[in-house]
Amino acid sequence: MKKLFLLFVPVLLLSGCQSAEETSSSTSKSELTSTTSTTSVTSTSSQELITESAENQGETDLNIEEINNNNLASLVGTWENGTGDTLIIYSDGSTNKNLTVHGVENSDQTSTIPYASLTDGTTGAALGLFKIGFENPDGDRSDTSRPRVVIAQQGGNYSPETYYYRQ
Q1: Which terminus of the chain is less hemmed in, N or C, by CB atoms within 10 Å?
Q2: pLDDT in tens, 104-131
Q3: What is the rounded distance in angstroms from the CA atom of residue 163 to the CA atom of residue 142?
Q4: Are the CB atoms for 146 and 61 separated by under 8 Å?
Q5: Which residues lie in Polar residues bias regions (predicted)?
């Protein structure tokens, strides 16, 4: 007990010498560490727990099989990326960007990232589909605890601002 006390006293003395700014910084760091630990636990939990947690928070996960078969119900809604760009997907597949979303049969089996097709009649792009817990195999700096989409021409380690999240 004395050894524990002796170790504890110097820590108290050192922390008592911190300025208000350092104390605030220390508090922020410990809060960040606490938040990071919680996030790590969530992301390492089983897929069922991640999905259940997201549903409890009101998040509807993407249903890749249905999207592949052109049922876009789980994609419908307003999505916003880190730069403030908004993508609205309507139930008929049309969008606010004059693009149309089409399911791609077996996209989850033919590509490392499941995707839908976005077309405007002459050109197109892929709409990468990221279910809750699914990580981009090329590197992922997004919030994997939420469903997200990416508009892209090719795969890659997208910047965090590129990912669209349901609003």
Answers
A1: N
A2: 999 999 999 999 999 998 999 999 999 9
A3: 7
A4: no
A5: 47-58
Q: What are phi and psi of 57, to 5 degrees?
A: -90, 5
Q: Write out the two tokens for 1.
A: 């007990």
Instruction: Based on the fold, state whether residues 65 and 134 are members of the same structural domain.
Output: yes
Number of domains in the chain: 2
Place of tokens 């609205």: 88
Edge-first strand order for the sheet with 115-119 is 86-89, 77-81, 164-166, 148-152, 124-130, 115-119, 100-102
Encode pLDDT of 55-91 as tens digits.
445 679 999 999 999 999 999 999 999 999 999 999 9
Asked, for residue 143, whether it belongs to a domain, the answer is: yes
Encoded amino acid at 8, one letter: F
CA 87, CA 95: separation in Å to the nearest integer? 7
d(CA 94, CA 118): 9
- Model pTM greater than 0.85? no
Structure tokens at 156: 């890659």
Contacts of 13 (CB under 8 A, 6+ apart): none
Task: Say how many C-beta atoms besides its own lie within 10 A of residue 35's C-beta.
Answer: 10
- State which residues form the domain around 39: 2-44
